[in-house]
Specification:
The complex is a heterodimer of chains A (about 120) and B (about 110). Chain A has about 120 residues and is mostly beta strands. Chain A contains no helices and eleven strands. In chain A, strands 2, 4, 5, 6, 9, 10 and 11 form a seven-stranded mixed beta sheet that branches. In chain A, strand 9 and strand 10 form a beta hairpin. The chains are: A mainly beta (about 120), B mainly beta (about 110). At the A-B interface, strand 4, strand 5, strand 9 and strand 10 of A face strand 4, strand 5 and strand 10 of B.
Chain lengths: ~120, ~110
């Protein structure tokens, strides 16, 4: 089983460039998330989605946009990359059972460096 | 709102020693609690979860955690550390009703020496 797949795994951007990170899950999960991980700060939620066509802001949404046109895909966009966006990005998905959101399943991460 | 505090950014143990990683939570409603492990250059993997059934939860790789409501704690333990346990561990909290995104602690890096 593929689970949650992130593309690409590594990327170097120049300041001001744009890019899109792709997340795909094959578990038919309702919920999807984008987190960023920085040393000493744990994982911070950027944006999330509770279903196809819906997105919402998380803890640190500035400088990012997202789209969820299909249930299995969740895209994270950087319109104008800044060095402060150098981080490791994780996508996750979770399912809904008995009216409760359960544990999240994570991708392998995308290491992004903005120079 | 939910939040998690992990005490100690680094914990060092010798191989064979007890592992204790601390997690305290804050939640306005009954929480669901999780421990995740992250090995170098990998994603997060679920170790165990508490979802209001048994308060002592057993997970993979010999880890367990006990939910203590009176102490608002969910500490992770393992009786005997192995070199392969060296990783970063994250505690996370969610609510037990309706939709709630996971809120993570800042992580504890476990170092195991021979």
């Amino acid at each position: 089983n593929a689970g949650v797949t992130q593309t690409p795994k590594f990327r170097v951007l120049k300041t001001g460039q744009s890019m899109t990170l792709l997340c795909a899950q094959d578990m038919n999960h309702e919920y999807m998330y984008w987190y960023r991980q920085d040393p000493g700060m744990g994982l911070r939620l950027i944006h999330y989605s509770v279903g196809e066509g819906t997105t919402a802001k998380g803890e640190v949404p500035d400088g990012y946009n997202v789209s969820r046109l299909k249930k299995q895909n969740f895209l994270l966009g950087l319109e104008s990359a800044a060095p402060s966006q150098t981080s490791v990005y994780f996508c996750a998905s979770s399912y809904f059972r008995d009216r409760v959101n359960t544990e999240a399943f994570f991708g392998q991460g995308t290491r992004l460096t903005v120079v | 709102a939910q939040s998690v505090t992990q005490l100690g950014s680094h914990v060092s143990v010798s191989e064979g020693a007890l592992v204790l990683l601390r997690c305290n939570y804050s939640s306005s409603v009954p929480p669901y609690l999780f421990w995740y492990v992250q090995y170098p250059n990998q994603g997060l993997q679920l170790l165990l979860k508490y979802t209001s059934a048994a308060t002592l939860v057993k997970g993979i790789n010999g880890f367990e955690a006990e939910f203590k409501k009176s102490e608002t704690s969910f500490h992770l333990t393992k009786p005997s550390a192995h070199m392969s346990d060296a990783a970063e561990y994250f505690c996370a909290v969610s609510r037990s009703t309706g939709f709630q995104k996971l809120v993570f602690g800042t992580g504890t890096r476990l170092l195991v020496s021979p």
